């Protein structure tokens, strides 16, 4: 049986210690995100959006509070379990796409499928299916260096959803894109959440994304100011 | 493996330079092994091929390569009288200088008994053996280097000798053997009654231990070795003088190989820092990235190994043509050994480079816009 909440944060704070000084990343965040939701974290630079995203991804440890992923507290995961979780259940989308330049678009997607321990045959089949579904077959054998920004982000989305991820974490996914490409990407993510009953968390300062979100959470100085 | 190859092929010039550099290090190692085998075989070939039962030298002498042995030549008859002895040949070995036009070259001259042939050249590749006092057989590489051929004349001290033959298996790398009659060698030395050693052949049925005891009492101040012990002594002596240098240069080659490869791998890691950070975020299994680096090292080492084998033989033949005294022998086991050393050094260099990988923090990619 699926746990209702994919992500759950209870009184989570993150403080960075730089020399003798402390800097607040996020402060006392409590929230639950469940299946079928596209949650948008909005806030200016330095509001703690990315810190929150990396905490949810298990890349950072909270200074206080409890983070649960898929019904299990993050502390109870070993390093390799967290790696496995990220490979199999979490998809990532970055502002600067972060595709591997020496691999073709198809190989970029195949790489994450390999991380999820899929067999060689499965890897090729799934990757080709994704390209077909997203209608980006023409990009499959292109190198990222030869693609436009919009094309790169399409491939990045393909990579994020390749493993049928239950949770997509998108860090400013439209910031490097024009309005048209930005809309396509966020629509894809919206559809992915709704149609597949998956959870998508987007952090952004792009107000255009508001209309696609099921829930909007405003962050300022590391705190939720209006949920 | 795909990504490994793609990373390396991304900078083809760098890959070519790296592979060439490492191949040269491996060629150096192959060359040193070849020299070692060539020298170790060449240095003792004279002893190995003179298949006698006993070598009699002056007391405390253990070898003829780096030792002095002076015996009286007048024991020949007394040794022959022993019932177990079938043949005996006194041999005088001396370092001397050959004059050719204005050039002087040093040889290790062996004066031997031409009747028995014991102590003479192990193998002739041109001409014939020495018959008279004014004749000499030269080592092939010495002859090549100094432009001597059968029929030529050369001067040692005031004596003019005619080259009657060319021998092989007589190149000890730093010096080459030459052969003449015992009388000629003694005349050149200026002490007719002096020899270096006796080479003795025994009856097949003889009791070697008893014969050694009998001969020992016969020749005061002598030491007697059987053939195998004497051969081992000479190999040991040659190795003690040569091996440390070889090890030092080979180690240097291995260090250079490891350093070059480690540096290139570290540069590759730094250049791919972002890729590796992304892979860590995307959940690459713990061993994936280290495997990638090790694969690069192994890939480079294997290609370099292949290239070194391809280049080794033509390079060595050029060196041997330019310097005939350089004699190398390379065996399959030596080639495999160098390839294994190359692989081990490759893996070691990747281990050094892996420390860079540990310093890549995945979070960096979120903050690098």
Keywords summarizing the entry:
heterodimer, A: 227 residues, alpha/beta, Rossmann fold, six-stranded mixed sheet, four-stranded antiparallel sheet, 6 helices, 29% strand, B: 369 residues, alpha+beta, 2 domains, six-stranded mixed β-barrel, two-stranded antiparallel ribbon, 11 helices, 54% helix, elongated
Overview of the structural elements:
The complex is a heterodimer of chains A (227) and B (369). With 227 residues, chain A is an alpha/beta fold. Chain A has one domain (5-226): P-loop containing nucleotide triphosphate hydrolases (Rossmann fold, 3-Layer(aba) Sandwich), CATH 3.40.50.300. Chain A contains 6 helices and 10 strands, in the order E-E-E-H-E-E-H-E-H-H-H-E-H-E-E-E. Chain A has helices at 49-56, 79-89, 105-115, 120-133, 149-161, 179-196; strands at residues 5-18, 21-34, 38-42, 64-69, 72-73, 90-93, 167-171, 199-204, 215-220, 223-226. Chain A has a 6-stranded mixed β-sheet. Chain A has a 4-stranded antiparallel β-sheet with strand order 2-1-4-5, with helices on one face. In chain A, helix 3 runs parallel beside helix 5. Chain A is globular and about 50 Å long. In chain A, 48% of the residues are buried. Chain B is of the alpha+beta class. Chain B folds into 2 domains: 2-43 and 237-366, no CATH class; 60-220, no CATH class. In chain B, the strands form 2 sheets. Chain B has a 6-stranded mixed β-barrel. In chain B, strand 7 (153-156) and strand 8 form a beta hairpin. The longest helix of chain B is centred in the last third of the chain and has 45 residues, at 227-271. Chain B is elongated and about 95 Å long. The interface between A and B is medium-sized, with 32 and 24 residues.
């Amino acid at each position: 049986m699926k746990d209702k909440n994919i992500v759950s944060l209870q009184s989570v704070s993150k403080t960075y210690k730089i020399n003798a000084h402390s800097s607040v990343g996020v402060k006392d965040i409590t929230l639950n995100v469940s299946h079928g939701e596209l949650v948008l974290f909005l806030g200016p630079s330095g509001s703690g959006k990315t810190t929150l995203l990396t905490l949810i991804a298990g890349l950072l440890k909270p200074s206080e509070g409890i983070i649960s992923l898929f019904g299990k507290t993050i502390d109870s995961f070993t390093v390799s379990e967290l790696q496995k979780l990220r490979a199999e259940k979490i998809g990532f989308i970055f502002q600067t796409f972060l595709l591997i330049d020496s691999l073709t678009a198809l190989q970029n997607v195949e790489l994450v499928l390999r991380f999820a321990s899929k067999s060689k045959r499965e890897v090729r089949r799934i990757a080709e299916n994704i390209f077909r579904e997203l209608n980006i077959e023409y990009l499959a054998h292109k190198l990222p260096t030869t693609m436009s920004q919009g094309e790169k982000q399409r491939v990045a989305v393909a990579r994020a959803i390749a493993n049928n991820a239950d949770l997509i974490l998108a860090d400013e996914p439209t910031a490097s894109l024009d309005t048209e490409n930005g809309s396509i990407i966020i629509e894809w993510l919206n559809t992915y959440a709704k149609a597949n009953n998956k959870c998508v968390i987007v952090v952004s300062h792009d107000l255009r994304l508001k209309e696609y979100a099921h829930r909007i959470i405003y962050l300022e100085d590391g705190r939720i100011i209006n949920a | 493996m795909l990504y490994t190859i793609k990373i390396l092929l991304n900078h083809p010039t760098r890959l070519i330079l790296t592979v060439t550099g490492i191949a040269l290090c491996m060629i150096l190692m192959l060359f040193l092994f070849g020299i070692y085998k060539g020298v170790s075989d060449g240095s003792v070939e004279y002893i190995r091929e003179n298949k006698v039962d006993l070598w009699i030298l002056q007391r405390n002498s253990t070898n003829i390569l780096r030792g002095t042995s002076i015996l009286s030549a007048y024991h020949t008859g007394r040794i022959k009288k022993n019932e177990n002895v079938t043949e005996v040949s006194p041999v005088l070995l001396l370092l001397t200088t050959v004059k050719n036009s204005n050039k002087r070259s040093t040889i290790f001259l062996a004066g031997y008994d031409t009747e028995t042939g014991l102590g003479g050249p192990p193998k002739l590749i041109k001409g014939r053996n020495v018959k008279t006092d004014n004749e000499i057989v030269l080592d092939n590489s010495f002859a090549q280097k100094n432009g001597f051929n059968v029929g030529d004349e050369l001067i040692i001290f005031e004596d003019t000798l005619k080259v009657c033959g060319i021998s092989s298996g007589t190149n000890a790398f730093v010096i080459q053997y030459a052969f003449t009659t015992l009388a000629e060698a003694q005349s050149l030395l200026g002490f007719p009654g002096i020899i270096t050693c006796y080479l003795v052949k025994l009856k097949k049925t003889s009791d070697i231990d008893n014969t050694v005891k009998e001969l020992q009492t016969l020749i005061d101040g002598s030491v007697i070795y059987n053939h195998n012990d004497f051969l081992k002594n000479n190999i040991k002596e040659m190795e003690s003088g040569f091996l440390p240098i070889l090890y030092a240069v080979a180690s240097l080659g291995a260090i250079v190989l490891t350093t070059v490869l480690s540096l290139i791998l570290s540069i590759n890691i730094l250049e791919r820092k972002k890729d590796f950070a992304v892979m860590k975020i995307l959940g690459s299994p713990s061993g994936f990235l280290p495997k990638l680096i090790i694969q690069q090292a192994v890939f480079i080492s294997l290609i370099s190994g292949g290239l070194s084998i391809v280049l080794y033989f033509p390079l060595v033949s050029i060196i041997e043509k330019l310097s005939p005294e350089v004699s190398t022998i390379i065996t399959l086991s030596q080639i495999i050994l160098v390839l294994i050393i190359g692989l081990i050094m490759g893996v070691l260099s990747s281990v050094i480079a892996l420390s860079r990988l540990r310093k890549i923090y995945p979070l960096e990619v979120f903050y690098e816009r």
